[in-house]
Design a protein that fits this description.
TIM Barrel; alpha/beta; disordered C terminus
């Protein structure tokens, strides 16, 4: 059992259970829902540093990053120190609590631009980005990365050691190499080398889908906390459940069967309100699909919900679509 509190400069993160950034999934409405159930912290979807600076994000973009959310890290990616530093200044000026640097994204469109996990192939260059961000702001800066580029270049411990010396306050390790993408199983035991290389908090990530896998990840890695991504899809209360089971957190407010439909409808309405009807009804569909997968919604009704564009009609359909979840949970 690790401590239930992670100090991060002037911040205190508790419980040590975080929501991972997932492009197209962990938007502001979903992060807020997860936070209400009881997450220690959440991380914004990755934003490219140069695009942030040159686009001069407007009101909606600033809201999307959650600058004013106390338990939110804004995640930056890039390959040039100048853009990373300037983006970090913008983030701090807008009131963000802390910044997370992405050196773990395996997507080809990111690594082909020498960002994300491609930076693990050149630690000297990676350190210039870390030093630029840390030197540009006074708020804490954290780092998310993988075990290495491939099996021949497992250098996460070396990167972590150098990052700590450069001022990084916490590091999150996904237990795969970049070349594994999401294949196989995360190697939590390999994260232990990072834990032994630094004194700052280390967070384990990858294939953590419930309290059992979270506990095993902590035991194998020696990490101080866990970060959950895909496991929270359709289960926004999962982080609170893990915190309760492993860190003696308060009992999670898992929706009672009769309240599940209300929660899903609330998430739907929040997405529509945030994005507007046209975009919001599209963005939320993946979440509705996960909720209905868990509920065992009959295929015809599932299709009707996911193809309906009128929010009022969707809200009328959802209670019936989620009845199976209510019966199973009762």
């Amino acid at each position: 059992m690790t401590d239930a509190v992670i100090p991060l400069g002037p911040l205190t993160l508790t419980p040590p259970v975080a929501l991972a950034p997932l492009a197209g999934v962990t938007d502001l409405p979903f992060r807020q829902l997860v936070s209400r159930f009881g997450a220690g912290w959440v991380v914004s979807e990755m934003v490219a540093s140069q695009e942030m600076v040159q686009a001069k994000p407007g009101v909606r973009e600033r809201a999307e990053l959650g600058f004013d959310q106390q338990n939110t890290a804004v995640q930056l990616a890039g390959r040039e120190a100048t853009w990373m530093a300037e983006a970090a200044r913008i983030v701090e000026a807008n009131g963000a609590s802390f910044i997370d640097i992405n050196m773990g994204c395996p997507a080809k469109k990111v690594t082909n631009g020498y960002s994300g996990s491609a930076l693990m192939k050149d630690l000297d260059h990676a350190l210039t980005l870390i030093e630029a961000v840390v030197g540009a702001v006074s708020i804490p800066v954290t780092l998310k990365t993988r075990l290495g580029w491939d099996d021949a270049l497992m250098n996460a411990a070396d990167l972590a050691r150098r990052a700590e010396a450069a001022g990084i306050s916490m590091i999150t390790i996904h237990g795969r190499t970049r070349c594994q993408f999401y294949k196989g199983h995360a190697d939590w035991a390999a994260i232990r080398a990072v834990r032994e290389a630094v004194t700052i908090p280390v967070i384990a990530n990858g294939d953590i889908v419930d309290s059992g896998s979270a506990g095993e990840a902590l035991r194998a890695s020696g990490a101080d906390g866990v970060m959950i991504g895909r496991g929270a899809q359709g289960r926004p209360w999962l982080l609170a459940q893990v915190a309760h089971d492993l860190f003696d957190g308060p009992a999670p407010r898992i929706p009672a069967p009769a309240d599940f439909a209300d929660m899903v409808c609330g998430h739907y309405e929040a997405s529509v309100a945030f994005y507007g009807v046209e975009l919001g009804t599209k963005v939320i569909r993946k979440h509705l699909g996960w909720y209905m997968d868990d509920a065992g919604t009959p295929a015809p009704l599932r299709k009707a919900v996911l193809t309906e564009a009128d929010p009022a009609r969707v809200l009328r359909l959802l209670p019936g679509a989620l009845e199976a979840w209510e019966r199973a949970a009762a």
